[in-house]
Amino acid sequence: MPAWRGRAVHQESLSHLADDSVRSGVTDACLPANGRVADIAECHNPCMSHAPVPARPTVLAVWLVVAGSIGWWAAFSLTMERFYLLLDPTATASCDFSVLVQCTANLESAQGSVFGFPNPILGLTGWVAPIVVGVAILAGARFARWFWWLFWAGLAFAFGFVCWLIGQSIFVLSTLCPWCMVTWVVTIPTFYAVSVHLLRTGLVPAGPRVQRAAGALMAWVPLVAILSFAVVAVIAEVRLDVLASLF
Predict the structure, then answer these.
(1) Positive or negative, the Cα torsion across 142, 144, 147, 149?
(2) 12 vs 15, 20, 21, CA distance in Å?
(3) Are residues 243 and 232 in contact, defined by beta-carbon separation less than 8 angstroms?
(4) Any idea which fold 58-246 has?
(5) Residue 74 half-sphere exposure toward CB, CA atoms < 13 A
(6) Which of 110, 137, 164, 236 fits a disulfide with 61 by CB distance 3.0 to 4.6 angstroms?
(7) d(CA 192, CA 194)
(8) CA-to-CA distance for 75 and 168, rounded, in angstroms?
(9) pLDDT per residue as tens digits for the range 173-232
């Protein structure tokens, strides 16, 4: 092969190498000066991150969509029941099954409108967030640390509010609202799951040991949620004697 032709092939290979390096994220600072591809492996670009990309939390995303949909439907149903009661104060809600299991007492109480409007309106707006976050994660979105903290803060508020409403329902109103209990069932495990997710992914500053423990704990979130439901059920039975009223 003539010398001039060999130099042309060499220059063309370097051109392709430069194009490939740009596409793969290698900057010009890492292009080999002598044309040897092996030298790229020896270049350490401080601008390139070698941290592993965390896996997409698919199971958590699916649960957020499912829980958000169920919670939104419960809030919508309670809102419609409230409208019916406003239109006809003598009517009873369709979720009124007995003196103990009913929605009317909860909706018409002061606890049913803590912020000056019916509580279900909070659910109509709030449950949209888990649905959107879950769908976005499934679509490949990744959120900043501050976003997860705000999302967790909203869930923490919902969890605390639900715990307060559980106490009010059992100890003050002496009723169990069916649609309210549906909200409890999805709020509690959602708060647990997102809290553990923040710990296992390092979104909350924690050591490797804590992250590993949180990763193992995620599989136990359903059981912890069931135990929480059992605690509520026992308190309700002791306070309201639910079984005797049902049978």
Answers:
(1) positive
(2) 5, 12, 14
(3) no
(4) de novo design (two linked rop proteins) (1.20.1440)
(5) 23
(6) 137
(7) 6
(8) 18
(9) 999 999 999 999 999 999 999 999 999 999 988 889 999 999 999 999 999 999 999 999
Query: To which H or E segment does residue 187 belong?
Result: helix 178-200
The structure tokens listed for 155 are: 């869930």
Closest to 166 (Cα-Cα) out of 191, 150, 188? 188
Question: Is 181 buried (19+), middle (13-18) or exposed (0-12) by CB count in 10 A?
Answer: middle
Q: What is the pTM of this model?
A: 0.77
Q: Kindly compute the dihedral angle of the four CA atoms of residues 133, 68, 229, 210, in this order, to the nearest 10 degrees.
A: 0
Q: Which two tokens stand for residue 229?
A: 């439901």
Contact between 179 and 95 under an 8 Å Cβ cutoff? The reply is yes
Angle at 36 (CA atoms; ends 31, 46), nearest 5 degrees:
35
- The percentage of residues in the chain with a pLDDT greater than 70, rounded to a whole number, is 77
What is the Rg, in whole angstroms, of the alpha carbon atoms belonging to the chain? 28
